[in-house]
Amino acid sequence: MKSLKLTGFLLIIMLLVLAGCGSAQNGEGETDDGGSDDGGDDASGEEVSVTLGTGGTSGTYYPLGVAMAQQIFGDVEGVSQARAVSTGASVTNAQEMASGDYQLALIQNDIAYYAVNGETLADFEGNTVDNMAGMVSLYPEDLQLVTTADSDINSIEDLEGKNVAVGDQGSGTEANANQVLEAAGLTYDDLTAEYMGFGDASQGMQNGTIDAAFIVGGAPTSAIQELGANQDVQVLSIPDDVIESLTSEYSYYTEKTISADTYSDYGQQEDITTVAVMAIMVVDSELPEDAVYNMTKAMFENREELESAHSRGTDITLETATEGMSIDLHPGAARYYEEEGVSVE
Q: Model pTM?
């Protein structure tokens, strides 16, 4: 009798142990709520928080980027939070994207190309940004060489010996200023290059510490308008031979004419012949496809918010969404364009 009771007791113990092992094995593939914890379905539905790098507060990137983040992207499915930050613009934005601090950024198409291919600029030579993908081409960015109407600067050659704002150090504007000066036969040794953003350059010309400034942005640019509100401005044309040199050496430059009417209220009297690059929006290539698809779609369905933020918002159209795109598109953006019949080649 005792042996039967002992045998029964041992069987019960064994059954309890087996049941516990089975529960543990089943638990390895499930979360407490019964879903998978292997990063499958739950991971694909996870919302992302995004930071959008813009530019200086007196440029075009900042108002457009703020409108995108605050009025459009924050309400997109798959995005939990969106915010825009003022930055040193293109080069800084590429570097911060590489470090994972920004998930979206406004950037010149030439700088994006350099960043992805790790070439030309010292900032990117050997330092490829390998997590950057294209989202949309926005508008042409005009190179504007501005001075005051009462200055003795009437051409690029007159910059010799002057204090010239060339953009934030390492910015897209600074890269463009360097290229334009080189095409005109000048270097930084021929002038005093001051590294500063558009707003500081405008203030410097107002108080006489800066003689001229390179400003790359969609015209009209607020920094020039701010200067013109206090004294008449003169935006200089780039000579034809310099334009020809730039457009032949760098594929991303195009010739551009800015009507005198753009700044006529601020003293401008003549049309401005210059060059332009393209402003584009880039995204972290690791962002979920659905989130980027939804952001791209929302941007075009809410274009009035961009038009209200800055006049260049009217240039953002589906017809030009991939023009001048210098890097590969994110699959989410490409999917939206394909649905809308926009070429993604």
A: 0.75
